[in-house]
Design a protein that fits this description.
With about 110 residues, the protein is α/β, with parallel strands linked by helices. The protein has one domain (about 5-105): Ribosomal Protein S5, domain 2 (2-Layer Sandwich), CATH 3.30.230.10. Helix content is about 45%, strand content about 20%. It has helices at about 10-20, 50-65, 90-105; strands at about 5, 20-25, 25-35, 40, 75-80. The longest helix is centred in the middle third of the chain and has 18 residues, at about 50-65. It is globular and about 35 Å long. It binds 2 RNA strands through strand 1, helix 1, strand 4 and helix 2.
Length: about 110
RNA sequence: CGAGCCGGACAUACGGUCGCGGGCCGCGGAAGCGGCGUGAGGAAAGUCCGAGCAUCGCAGGGCAAGGAUGCCUGCUAACGGCAGGAGGAGGCGACUCCAAGGAAAGUGAACAGAAAUACACCGCAGCUUUUCGGCUGUAAGGUUGGAAUGGCGAGGUAAGAGCUCACCGUCGCCCCGGCAACGGGGCGAGCCAAUUAAACCCCAUCCGAUGCAAGAUUGGGAUAAGGGCUGCGUUCGAUCGCAGGGCUGCCCGUCCGUCCUUAUCCGUUAAUAUCGCUUUAACCUGCAGGCGACUGCCGGUAUAGAUAGAUGACCGUACACGACAGAACUCGGCUUACAGGCCGGUCUCGGAUG
RNA sequence: GCUUCCGUAGUUAAAUGGAUAUAACAGCCCCCUCCUAAGGGGCCGUUGUGGGUUCGAUUCCCGCCGGGAGUA
């Protein structure tokens, strides 16, 4: 199993307008059904300077890579983290699993 | 031995598994798959200066406006940078720091104070007057202030005053040293010309504007068919075999992403495509010149190039237990942030021992 | 990424280099009233921050910190 990067600005804007949301403690999913699993990470400037933001992006990508088998159906996803004091891979991974379960229920 | 000063280099290291960007090679018509090696910094940061490069403007030269710089000489592609020197300030010292041209072109400078380059309030003294007082001289003393007719002593005088003299300061001229800034010495002027230019200003030198989101190139979309991207087993392997995928496990039914090739149809707009995009005032070693910044020559090295934006996760070993921090067109500087230890010096000061 | 502007009471603003930084509204305290409102008086500032120039800086110069705007 693998996923693709979501790159187009128009796609992301469409997701923000029309997408459904699934929340958890540390992050939020914004998603719409699609044929393949596509993902984009969004980290805003309020999370810190470049080194901090890069660190969060890498952790989120690694967590998503591990959680691809849990995604219930093909969809485009935006992953948006919340502000926190510390960020860890275990927390992100567990919360992603929760979000995937919520998506399955909402369908 | 302790406390310092100056300069330089580093800034977790090594191995394994999975994953990401780009390069080369192999298979393939292509998409793609596999292998090999490669992938952030000393500040990549702030965007404060200087250049390259690109577009627009512009015959050439001058002037005005606006902006920048400001001791001297050099280095450099250039600079507001650097080096060496001059002057000033700090330190016992090694050494460090300094926005440092012109006030004899002109204007301005609150309040206080009599007065701010000058106009006499008190005082001091002379003349006058019955007295109160008036006139004149005077910057020694008082008051105010950040700053008061250069400071201090002596002579001098009615009282005083560079009025005169010695020393110091200031200014001018001459001589000597230096490319110069400037330094040393001599003679003279009795001070006319206080301070402030990161106040206006004057003088000298420099500057066209915008910035890679600059700019250049390429026609795009829809539908259909075929193939790839996926999973499992197998193989040393890029080999071979089976299964399209999702909708709760199966059947029916239904839905369908993206890439490539071919065909058909619509039809003229500028990308999310390609170039710019990384090999250049480059880095390293050695030799020569120079006090030095730096320059010349011989030899060697190839060292990120993304485009929603690549360095992460897990495990093991070691210790000092890892600071500040992430390229975005590219260089030369400046400024700011930074755990820590390492190397060098005929370097400085103090103590002890010989 | 590039360009550019702004930081003054709790808020919105003002202030030629010159006394203790000025208004309005808000907050707190006091007076007035039997009580409240209105009214009167007072309090509330490291002028974002660190240096420099100056006799003197909110103002002039330099370095940081924070916030906003424009640009495909």
């Amino acid at each position: 199993m693998n996923y693709e990067r979501l790159k187009k600005n128009t796609d992301i804007l469409r997701l923000f307008r029309q997408g459904k949301r699934a929340h958890s403690d540390s992050l939020t999913f914004v998603y719409l059904p699609a044929g393949k699993i596509k993902m984009a990470v969004i980290v805003s400037k309020k999370h810190g300077k470049a080194v901090k933001r890069n660190r969060i992006k890498r952790l989120l990508r690694e967590a998503f890579f591990r959680n691809v088998p849990n995604v219930p159906f093909g969809c485009s996803v935006l992953v948006i983290p919340r502000e926190a004091e510390r960020y860890s891979l275990e927390k992100f991974s567990a919360d992603m699993k929760k979000c995937c379960r919520k998506m399955a229920c909402q369908r």
